[in-house]
Amino acid sequence: MLHLILFSVFGAICVAGAINLLVQSHPINSALSLIAVMASLAVEYLLLGAEFVAAVQVIIYAGAIMVLFVFVIMLLNAGEEEKTGGSRVALLFGIPGMLIGSVLIAWVLLEHSGTGSVPAGALPGSPKTIGWLLFHDFLLPFEVTSVLILIAIMGSVVLASREEIPAPGAGGPR
Amino acid sequence: MSVIKTVIGLFILLTAVAYSVWLERKVVGHMQNRWGPSRVGPFGLLQPLADGAKFLFKEDLIPPHVYKPLYIAAPMLSVIFALTSIAVIPVGNWVDIAGMHIPLQITDVNIGLLIILGITSMGVYGVALAGWSSNSKYSLLGGLRASAQMVSYEISLGLSLIGVLITAGSFSLREIVDAQGGVFWGFIPRWNIFHGQEIAFFIYLCSAYAETNRIPFDLPEAETELVAGYHTEYSAMKFAMFFMAEYANMITVGCLATLLFLGGWHGPIFGPPILQAILPVFWFVAKVFCFMILYIWVRGTLPRFRYDQLMAFGWKFLFPLAVANLVITALVVALTA
Fold first, then answer.
1. Which of chain A's residues have a Cβ under 8 Å away from the Cβ of B140?
2. pTM for the full predicted model
3. Residue B253 included in any domain
4. Which residue in the set A32, A59, A77 is minimally distant from B118, CB to CB?
5. Contacts of B165 (CB under 8 A, 6+ apart)
6. In a 3-state reduction of DSSP, which class is residue B103?
7. Residue A145 has what pLDDT?
8. B164 touches A: beta carbon within 8 Å
9. Of the candidates B115, B140, B147, which has its C-beta nearest A70's C-beta?
């Protein structure tokens, strides 16, 4: 029972944070709301028994990626955004589309509930099982993803240091 | 039960925070041929209480140009994250009091180490937001430096711990300590620092000093350039919260070093049963104390790094070293297993 209450409370915090993220006009408030979303998601994972995923969610998303977001906002000293009326396309298609999407998801979940559901904590969530899955069953996708990330890192390094490479024929020191 | 343990744990931690400030002032004072605090009480032992009272009764000044919500929240965030991580740190084995078998730990979780890493990685927000919301150039520079430095050194810190995790085969702090019991050749303790993790300990030490913003990596509050860095605009209790957070983080880092590298509460056990029950906790506290003394010693000895040196040291030296240590440890474990 306590489990369910906590789950609902943190779910509500998550949704409230997401809405606040959109409503706030100052970038740093939006970034902080996103941190709240990440942290409450981590709690949801924890309540579902996926403790490793929860810890990694906090360490990587809330603790590293969002720090960089905040860092960039601080560095650029981004001020308040100007409020515009919002685009008409978003009003006409976005909101109905979102409603239809969430109704569809809810319908699918309700339709199939009970067929494949498992009690919370019954799925493999411990570090050991996740490690086993990553390095045995999903070894190739895992390694390919890491190569992809490596390529992205190298690409960003090349882009960042572009000025320092002398243009061909510019007569730079050989 | 947990409530009692939490209250006791917090009380001990806060007392330790207050007295490590006293210890630091005293030891650094003697290193610099001064007396350090000596007026309040014998050896200045009541100085922390006087300081606390002063912080409480000072006027809490809020400059007019700050962004108020975050300015107020930032020191609280700092101190909350600093005090939370004590919850998963075990200080000793089990004790039997009045027929109850009690672990000397507020809560035992099997991913204890990850939880500590998560909490400490959130700690940077207190510093970064304090720097930004103060709306002053010194604070902003301090906050920027803190966030860049903490993100950079967190990587080497995490990688240096993975070697220990591989040898112990668990994320649980209790199991990691249990794996370090026993001795080699009859006299060398089987602690991780004597068990192939010497380089990892060095990396951990450097990264931990950087993570807690201590000399030689205290760029976020470099007095000579930034007045006081991220807490320039803070006064009274809000400043005290940053101070408490810094020392609480130092103690957490010391506890973690003790648990992961220095064998936790393992040490010579002898004497009557009551002494045998107390000795493990004594060894744990003694090791943390040595670690704190090392912190202070380094502060009294080393000058501050330049900012580019700090980044070069983190990324070009510690990071490759940590990766190399990880690969070698993994190879050794795989070949001997």
1. 74, 77
2. 0.82
3. yes
4. A59
5. B113, B171, B176
6. strand
7. 92
8. no
9. B147
Nearest CA in chain B to A75: B144
Task: Tell me which residue range forms the domain holding B244.
Answer: 61-336
B220 part of contact set with chain A, CB < 8 Å = no
Place of tokens 């056990």: B269
DSSP strand E in B82-180: where? Answer: 94-97, 100-103
- Give the model's confidence band at A174: pLDDT under 50 very low, under 70 low, under 90 confident, else very high: very low
- How many domains is chain B partitioned into structurally? 1
Q: Looking at the complex, report in whole angstroms how far the Cα of residue A95 sits from the nearest Cα belonging to chain B.
A: 32
Name the pLDDT band for A148 (thresholds 50, 70, 90).
very high
Q: For residues B83 and B109, what is the distance between their CA atoms, to the nearest angstrom? A: 17
Q: At residue B247, what are phi and psi to the nearest 5 degrees?
A: -75, -35
Are the CB atoms for B219 and B304 separated by under 8 Å? Answer: yes
The answer as to whether B79 is a domain residue is yes
Answer whether A71 sits within 8 Å of B128, measured CB to CB. Answer: yes
pLDDT at site A172:
46
Counting one residue from chain A and one from chain B, the pairs whose CB atoms sit within 8 A come to 72
Q: Is the pLDDT of residue A62 over 50?
A: yes
The rounded distance, in Å, linking the Cα atoms of A30 and A60 is 18
Place of tokens 């390919």: A144
- Fold classification of A1-79 (topology level): Four Helix Bundle (Hemerythrin (Met), subunit A) (1.20.120)
Helix, strand, or coil here: B134? coil
- Measured in residues, chain B has a length of 337
Closest alpha carbon to B289 in B329, B262, B326, B269: B262
Lowest-pLDDT range, A29-43, A117-131, B297-311?
Answer: A117-131
